[in-house]
Design a protein that fits this description.
The chain is about 0% helix and about 45% strand. By secondary structure, the protein is mainly beta. The strands form 4 sheets. Strands 3-4-5-6 form a 4-stranded antiparallel sheet, with no helix packed on it. Strands 7-8-9-10 form a 4-stranded antiparallel sheet, with no helix packed on it.
Length: about 170
């Protein structure tokens, strides 16, 4: 099984809660042997990607109790954008990976990103709200998308095609 442990930011020690196991600071999240692939904390809710169960589980951070869960095919890393929507890498065992968008209530939105060969992580640029997606495919770049409209719009890449190993020996592109 997999678990999540809660810590106090002020003491950096385990922070027990009612119903916690082990030392009172642990909640068992996944009991089928699958791995947890993504966590996102927004202050009052902890979003947990349970890839094996094809769900995102939402925990109340004060009580560490399960508030709700919703279906996402093979969810991996997850992030919340400035408009309050969740973007999750969906990486099924067969077929291409994609970035799917959901409301915090678990309603899938129309916006889907399918042009990343091997997405490995997602983040939001706090300055402009753009979605950053790292691509472990041949490009080895970070792909940048404007997700503020009805459809995600590819904006740019960060890094050179092929990644750090693409340039001459001894130089790191920047």
């Amino acid at each position: 099984w997999n678990c999540i442990r809660r810590y106090s930011l002020s003491t950096l020690m385990a922070a027990p809660f009612t119903g916690g196991v082990v030392d009172g600071s642990v909640v068992a999240v996944n009991t089928d042997g699958g791995a947890l692939r993504g966590l996102y904390l927004d202050g009052t809710s902890l979003y947990v990607s349970d890839t094996a169960a094809n769900t995102v589980e939402v925990y109340n951070t004060a009580t560490m109790t399960l508030s709700r869960s919703f279906s996402v095919p093979s969810p991996m890393q997850i992030v919340k954008d400035q408009a309050g929507y969740l973007s999750s890498i969906s990486s099924p065992t067969s077929g291409a990976a994609s970035i799917l968008r959901y409301s915090t209530a678990g309603v899938q939105q129309a916006q889907t990103i399918t042009d990343v060969i091997a997405p490995t992580s997602v983040a939001i640029n706090p300055t402009n709200g753009y979605l950053l997606v790292s691509d472990d495919g041949p490009s080895q770049q970070i792909r940048v998308y404007n997700v503020s409209g009805t459809n995600p719009v590819f904006n740019s890449t960060i890094g050179v095609y092929g990644g750090v190993a693409a340039s001459s020996t001894g130089t790191i592109p920047g």
